[in-house]
Every structure is written in C-alpha cells, then in structure tokens.
Design goal:
single chain, 206 residues, two-stranded antiparallel sheet, CGNR zinc finger domain-containing protein, ABATE_dom_sf, Znf_CGNR, ABATE
Length: 206
C-alpha cells in the first residue's frame, strides 16, 4: 500500500469537527474506532482518553492545512514536522497480498502497528501519510474548503491544482452564493429591487 493513502487519516480526523457550525462528531470511543476504518486491530486499543487526545491532534492537523491554504508553506511544514517528532511512525517493507505476474511479492512500504495507544497509532499514520502526500504533490495540495460555513480539509489531487472546495456540493453552494451576491450588487447599482421595481428612499434589500 502506498503511504500517501494514509493521508486520508488526517482529513478524516480534521473533518470530524465543523467549527463554524459548532458541531463535533468526535465525542466517544465508538467515534474514535470508526475513524480507523478497516484498521480494526488498532481501533480495539481505543479508550476514553483517546477522545481528548485525538481532539488535540485534530486541532494541530487543522493548523497544518490552514497554513497551507493561506500559502504559508514553511509554517505548514514546521507544524507537521513537530507532529512527526511527537508521533513517530514505523515504516516496514511488506509483500503480502500483492503478487506480480510471476507470483513474486510486490514489495511496498506500509506502517507497522505497535503504538502505545490508539491516538499514537492514528496520529503517526495520519502524519506520515500527510508528509508523503505533501512532499510528493506539494504543500499547495492541502486545502480548506472555501464554501462558508464549511471548513472541511481536503487534498487537491486535480491535474491543474484548481480545487477550492471539499465536494461538488460545496462548490455548487459557493457558486450559487456568488451569483446571488453579484445580482444583488447589480440591482443596487441600477437602483432596483429583486422584482425589478425601483428602490425607494426608505427601502433596502436584505
């Protein structure tokens, strides 16, 4: 398995919270376990303390994406390096389940699972995957959704580095909002309301 695959661990963790909406899905041990997806062995180590610890990691990972989205590459890298030092990973060469046409193993790197806690395992996996993604594709591939109030993190894998939103839904919502704002400006300049009637001296549009 390519290590860039693990960068999705970082995105999943960050997006358990929607700061502008005041929602947080990371509130229980079960929520922690769901984050691991297919990595059930690591998930079984999760305890109550991992909820708080992973929230702390989440805040720091969001800061990495925010710095990258703001164009501050050095800060993004420094923040990620600090996490990598605190949560070191253990890459190992594996060939299981991947054979070439001659029946020989397709050697690849994956992350060994022997951390001290669920948080340590998840954070190490997320940070290592993000580090490989960042160095392979570039810091500018890390983004924060531009559609308010969504502030989801995303990885831009587009060929022209043009992604600005975390999903098609958010892109559509942002385009509609921009269109409506443009129409409001046009009507204000022409002195007319939404239904085409003139704007009176004591009438304003909300």
């Amino acid at each position: 398995m390519e290590l860039t695959y693990y960068s999705d661990f970082a995105v999943r963790l960050i997006n358990t919270e929607e700061p502008l909406r005041g929602t947080d899905a990371l509130t229980s041990v079960d929520a922690v376990r769901r984050l691991f997806g297919e990595a059930q062995q690591a998930a079984r180590r999760a305890g109550e303390g991992d909820v708080t610890r992973l929230r702390g990691v989440r805040t720091r990972l969001r800061a990495v994406f925010t710095a990258a989205a703001e164009g501050d590459e050095v800060r993004a890298v420094d923040l990620l390096n600090a996490l990598l030092l605190e949560y070191p990973a253990s890459p190992q060469i594996s060939g299981h389940d991947y054979l070439d046409e001659a029946g020989r193993p397709r050697w690849h790197l994956h992350l060994a699972e022997h951390p001290s806690s669920a948080t340590a395992g998840y954070a190490a996996t997320a940070c290592m995957g993000l580090a490989f993604q960042l160095t392979d594709l570039g810091v500018d591939r890390l983004g924060i959704c531009g559609a308010e109030p969504c502030r989801n993190a995303y990885l831009d894998t587009s060929t022209n580095r043009s992604k600005r939103y975390c999903s098609d839904r958010c892109a559509t919502r942002a385009n509609v909002a921009a269109y409506r704002a443009r129409k409001r400006r046009e009507r204000a300049l022409s002195g007319r309301t939404a239904d085409g009637s003139p704007v009176s001296a004591d009438t304003s549009e909300t």
